[in-house]
Amino acid sequence: MLTRRQFAQGTAAAALTLTAAPALAVIGNDINLPPAPLPGVSIAPEFYPAVFRVKREFEPGSIIVISSQHFLYYIVRKGVAIRYGVAVGKAELVFRGACSVGKKVEWPSWKPTPEMIARNPRAYKKYEDGMEGGPRNPLGARAIYLYQNGRDTAIRIHGTTEPNSIGHSVSNGCIRMVNDHVIDLYNRVAIGAPVTVY
Fold first, then answer.
1. For the whole model, what pTM was predicted?
2. Where are the alpha helices (DSSP H) in the chain?
3. What is the CATH number of the domain that holds 155?
4. What is the mean pLDDT of residues 106-118?
5. Is the Cβ–Cβ distance between 53 and 188 less than 8 Å?
6. Of these residues, 70, 99, 168, 174, which one is catalytic?
7. What is the pLDDT of residue 17?
8. What is the C-alpha radius of gyration for the chain, rounded to an integer number of angstroms?
9. Is 158 a catalytic residue?
10. What band does 10 get if pLDDT is binned at 50, 70 and 90?
């Protein structure tokens, strides 16, 4: 697990590395992206998936999240990444750390954590026994479960029933994506892939 100091240093380094190369979207036509814009989704154009050049040191197949910028990068191959817009945790709930993809689930079920219920019983108490997966489930169409040292962190990269929240810090710690975008990422990322959240 990264220390607070390593993250403070790493955040700036990662941001510079990811933007220092020419940040010219769509550098090739060999990577198929989800369609944009999507009906009913009114997010800024920069939060739709696009292909970017990145430093070649990033491991293909890995995910890097820059929470302060609301971007998730999936490293397709050396020097090339798909950038997606995300929503992240509220200021006090932002997850940070080095982890890995421990599990992937289509149309996942959802259960609020005890902490979520304690923070906002009015919103979450009624779901304490859980909710089946489906279009009304807050985890949306797909969930990518993040693990540290073989243990579930309770943090997910997942779809959402609130796609217009993308680009904001509003969640209980998880990383939200537009459903079409998380389906695209889900189909690309492998179990065991490294994930770093700054």
1. 0.86
2. 4-20, 114-119, 121-124, 179-188
3. 2.40.440.10
4. 89
5. no
6. 174
7. 55
8. 16
9. yes
10. low
